[in-house]
Structures are given as C-alpha cells and as structure tokens.
Amino acid sequence: MLSRTRPDPHRRALLAILLSLVAMAPAVRADGPPPPPELAWEGEVPEDLAPVRDRALALCREKLPLLMRHLDSPGWVPPKRAAIRFDASLDIPACASSEGVRLGVKWFRAHPGDIGAAVHELVHVLQAYPAPERTEPGAAVRHTKPDWLVEGIADYLRWVVCCPEPGALPEHFAKRSYRESYRTAAVFLDWIVKRSGPQVLRDWNDALRRGVFHEGLIEASTGKALDPLWAEFQAARP
C-alpha cells in the first residue's frame, strides 16, 4: 500500500518566498542609465507666483539626477519631457500625471515656501507604476500598488533624500499607522533602508514598475511580514 507524505507547511512558505525573490529579481540591462527627461515650465504664471516658479523649477532640475538614481530600474524608459505648470483649478497642493506636474495656485499663494511639493510630484512622474490589472472581470488583481508605499517613496525622496527640513517629519509612532502614508510612511521606509539596506527600496520600486509587487516581497526582503515589521519599527520609534 502506497503511503502519502503530508505537505510540509514550512517548506511551502520557504518555496513561496523563493518564488517571490525570483519574480522580484530585475533583468540585466546592458546599456547605461536612461537620459533624464527635459524639465520645462509650461503655461502662464501669475505675476505674484513668478518667484515660486523660478525656485520650484530650479529645485526640480537640481534634484532630478538624484531622483533618477534612486528610481532607476532595468529597462526603465522615463518620459522625454516633463512639464511643470500652475493650475488655478486645483483644490489640492499639487498633482502629477504622465505629462508632468501641476502646482495649485491657491496653495502656493498661501504656502510659497512649499516648493518641495514639486519634487514629490516629480517622483510620481518618474515612478510610472502601472495600475493593478485583473485577468478577467471579477477576478482578483494580479498584483498590488499600495498607496502607502507609492506615496511613502515620494515623501521619502522628498523629505529624507532631497529636501530634509528640521521638524518636518513625525517623531512618535505608537498611535500611527504606515497606512497614513506620506510622511509617516517616509520615516518607516527610511528606517527599513537603514535596517535592511538601500537595495530593498530599489527592488520594490522595480517590482512596482514591472507590475509584480505584492506584500510577500516585503517579508522576502526584510525577513518579516509588513505588520510585524511595523510593530518592530514602533518599538524602535514609540
């Protein structure tokens, strides 16, 4: 009589992690880094906001090479041109699309010093992550693009890498969640980079761009699933 061996759950978990690492592994690119997009101002500028335009454009041009290095991934082709413009219809500080960055007139009249917002939105232009796709109507999505991570990367590059500012980032996290995104997630990502190395964010950026990111990659990269990793962070930064 043939006996059947029970599947080992630990072996299954290890196999899942190994498969995740294979999916996350970037292809080898023979050519060098891609050329950066041309940054140009577009559209009319209210007279009182001309200094904001000048400083925002200069800051984005200065930080673009740094952003390119952090967001590079195999096979990535950034846009050839990215326009920055004011938009009087915006009720939010700023936004981004495949065409470039829009800065809200209302916001920058009230907060003319917040030009780092343009860097945050420029990150989104360069990220160019595809939307999650379904194989058929009603089917589960094939990958995730968590808002907390997308916005966290943008604020990490703004507040930690490009435009650090004393007092700008939260310091206590006992009652916070990484799902708050933005600055909270930026500090979390900074801690992860210091804990597990900068390659972690490069790999996640690459997986997001290739449409293969899922939360299992976080455990594969750091040795802990997302929520236990956040708990470890909270213990380190109560």
Please summarize what this structure is:
With about 240 residues, this protein is an alpha/beta fold.
Describe the structure.
There is one protein chain. The protein has helices at 9-24, 50-71, 105-110, 116-127, 147-162, 182-196, 199-210, 216-222, 226-236, and strands at 38-41, 81-87, 94-97, 100-104. With 238 residues, it is of the alpha/beta class. It has two domains: 38-127; 133-236, no CATH class. It has a four-stranded mixed beta sheet. Helix 1 crosses helix 8 (216-222), helix 2 crosses helix 4 (116-127) and helix 4 (116-127) crosses helix 5 (147-162). The longest helix is centred in the N-terminal third of the chain and has 22 residues, at 50-71.
What are its keywords?
4 strands, 2 domains, 49% helix, single chain, disordered N terminus, alpha/beta, 238 residues, 9 helices, 4-stranded mixed β-sheet, globular
Give the structural class. Answer: alpha/beta
Count of spatially separate domains: 2
Helix share of residues?
40-55%
Whole-number average pLDDT? 88
Low-confidence sequence ranges:
1-5, 16-29
Morphology call: globular
Q: Going across the biggest sheet, name each strand in turn.
A: 1-2-4-3
Q: What's the arrangement of secondary structure elements?
A:
Layout: H1 9-24, E1 38-41, H2 50-71, E2 81-87, E3 94-97, E4 100-104, H3 105-110, H4 116-127, H5 147-162, H6 182-196, H7 199-210, H8 216-222, H9 226-236
Parallel strand pairs: 1-2, 2-4
Antiparallel strand pairs: 3-4
Helix pairs in contact: 1-8, 2-4, 4-5, 5-6
